Target: RNA-binding protein
Amino acid sequence: MCEANAYLITDGGETLVMEAVDEVSPEKDGLKLVNIFGEQKFLRAAVHSLSLVDHKVFLRELAP
Amino acid sequence: MCEANAYLITDGGETLVMEAVDEVSPEKDGLKLVNIFGEQKFLRAAVHSLSLVDHKVFLRELAP
Model:
């Protein structure tokens, strides 16, 4: 399985926001994340970068 | 390995722009893609969505 962990980039570093993410899609003014267990999370964020071989998705917060 | 294929969303559908993508990172006014073979590509685009279990990264062109 090629899911990834999603991290939110913050001033202090990176915060894990969801494990085993499968789908990331735009929704309203942010992103919907869905993991392989069917759990969903909405974040006011955009994709910053990907490191797929390391199973990492980095997100950045959007300005309020 | 958990690389993915990158597709650019166009009016007509989806165009494969790079196979076996590992790293996607912001660069200037677009994205730099690097695949597992070390090949690089720059696109004036942003990440639209991800479908990681299907090994797919969807990109959208940025307005000129």
In short: Residues 17 and 32 of chain B are 12 Å apart (CA to CA). Chain B touches chain A through 21 residues (CB under 8 Å). Chain B has one domain: 4-61.
